[in-house]
Known about the structure:
mainly alpha, two-stranded antiparallel ribbon, 59% helix, elongated, disordered N terminus
Amino acid sequence: xxxxxxxxxxxxxxxxxxxxxxxxxxxxxxxxxxxxxxxxxxxxxxxxxxxxxxxxxxxxxxxxxxxxxxxxxxxxxxxxxxxxxxxxxxxxxxxxxxxxxxxxxxxxxxxxxxxxxxxxxxxxxxxxxxxxxxxxxxxxxxxxxxxxxxxxxxxxxxxxxxxxxxxxxxxxxxxxxxxxxxxxxxxxxxxxxxxxxxxxxxxxxxxxxxxxxxxxxxxxxxxxxxxxxxxxxxxxxxxxxxxxxxxxxxxxxxxxxxxxx
Length: 261
């Protein structure tokens, strides 16, 4: 057998393979073209219109079976003991019939209604012989163990100690501030006394024959300037300082003074 016979090809299979490849390429090209069109439409804003994609949710129809509910209610046993239901009514005189805008009065009415209901229920329970108060020797088991309670106790003590330390620190700061203020006041008093003594000594040296102690005790003596000077009268002040008014240009010549020259 020749080599040509060994390399045998089926012409029909080869033709089918070519057709399949061609169809596959056509599908790929069509898909690419569709994607390109979608991208162009998205860029142009054609796919962002409101209401384009709206999910349709079907509303559930309400179920209202009145007859079945009434039939079921009739099967309930209404003749039960009060201890099983504990239904209580308050005094009808306590009904609130005023305006709903009066919040304070409305809340007070609710309080009175609740108090009256509790009192009536307590009387009925007492009549049935059911205890409502806890015995004096009753010890209930705590919800938290001793370990947890010790932690809480230590936490409370720690918080209390921190608070006390802060208060002590604040008190010490206030005391130091007050001490500095008192010290500053005393230093100022010493400086004023020293200044007064120096001024009195200067006055004594300048010729004041009074003793130094009398100069210091004299109420007319001031720290600045020694004794207070006597005020000048109006005539002396006018003679010394003039009569006021404009002083600038007062020595310039005018027409009258020029003619006198």
